[in-house]
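Fold it.
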Amino acid sequence: MADRYWVGGTGNWSDDDNHWATSSGGSPADGNLPTAADNVIFDTNSSAADAAYTMTIDASAVCLNFTMDGPGSGNNVTWAGSAALAISGTMNLIGGSTDITRTYTGTITFNSTATGKTLTFNGLTFGGAFTFDGVGGGWTIQDAMNIGSFDITLTNGALATNGQTITCRSVISSNSNTRTLTLGASTINCNRTTTAWTLSTTTGLTFDAGTSTINITGSGGDFLGGGLTYNIVVFTGASGHTISGANTFATLTVTGTATKTNGVFPQANQTITGTLTLSGNSSVNRLHLAAFNRGESYTISAGTVTLSNIDIEGITGAGAGNAELQKLEGRLPGPGDLSLKVFREKALDYIKKMQRAKEVYMRTHKLGGPDVPALKENLEEQKQQIAPPGPGKVLFQAPDGQQAWIPKDRVDYYMGKSGGKGKVI
């Protein structure tokens, strides 16, 4: 292991003749290009007279520990380029956002095979993906980590977010390698517009959600939970969110936006040990809770349930808070109630009940018996149950020919769900 110091100001990583020395402020020489066993250091002697300079990673680069500080005197080093960088040790950005300007967009892979490695950002944000891929390696995030709209991937090793705030496009760890993901008290913000959380394959994975909060903020951001146990998960993005895996949440919150396409679509039963909160934006822009595939049915078990402006289809409530979900079950037709045939069968059954109730009432009345208010109420109830839908509903036909009465303000939603192939008849 050796130290390699950047010198000579502006230049390319690959130019060892002019920029890599074996001592701070020393002379560069051929053969000093850093290897995976060498520490790289950018310090106040990396440019003459503390001048601002640019270091460009122009070709695939490797190192052991990566340490970067500014040149001093209030000037910045600009970290540029797009080629990949592999760090086999610790990354310490001493200069942070104050003394480092980052335009670099390459992927950084942390591939240590030893534990005890750390990442320190000091406010510097990134514009490229981070991959952790070292068998037996271990990394701890020391402060806020923001890589914008890029992914964090854990392939091998152990990653601890250490209670820090993490901002990224998505978190991915779906393989059969030995790996550990520990979230502690972190807040994880995922902004991807498709799959924002991917832990679908959990073989070899040790996962500890701790007291973390996972925010899915991207439009249509999906959550592939892998049947694991999470603390707080919050969806705030527009459009529909799929939840796969039979997961357990301490708290699950879905908040709709001012669109008619908001929804959350489980692909398995879900358990919420604490509070389930489902909130549509308004009575017009409602939130749709439904099984992912038409005809499927899943159970959501929750300790406490808070609902507003939502519609439910193919979901059954269970647990201590099931009463609130059950109040809305059937607000939309269920998988077995989407045909006019079923509607007619139910209507005929109600008519028969009305006729029987009427006969009992008339017979009692003729015999001089008392007026029976309960029977009258029963008649009125049956009339309401088979009454034709009001002016606020239309008959919608799905591509497979099934039909259902739906609210007029949900036509756009069902048209979208049918791929534009449904129709109002």
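Helices lie at 16-19, 96-99, 322-328, 340-366, 373-386, 411-417.
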